[in-house]
Amino acid sequence: xxxxxxxxxxxxxxFVRAGRMLPHQDFLNLxxxxxxxxxxxxxxxxxxxxxxxxxxxxxxKKPNPGLRTALIVLGVIAAFGxxxxxxxxxxx
Length: 92
What we know:
Number of domains: 2
Helix content: 40-55%
Strand content: under 5%
């Protein structure tokens, strides 16, 4: 098969010269196959609605226990500070 193209379905991958593929033909055949596949998918008419599960939402992050402890300690210190200010300046 010198200098002739083989049909796609007969095991050939494209234009063959002297019994072997030209260096760029393999890439071009792959590119052409991808383009054909994409255009076949774009123009395929179908009345079937495909239902897909929605992607799972990522799990919410768990609160940092160290941050929670720091906020509690800060709240206790603020409460003591406000109590001291009240008794120091207002009542007693």
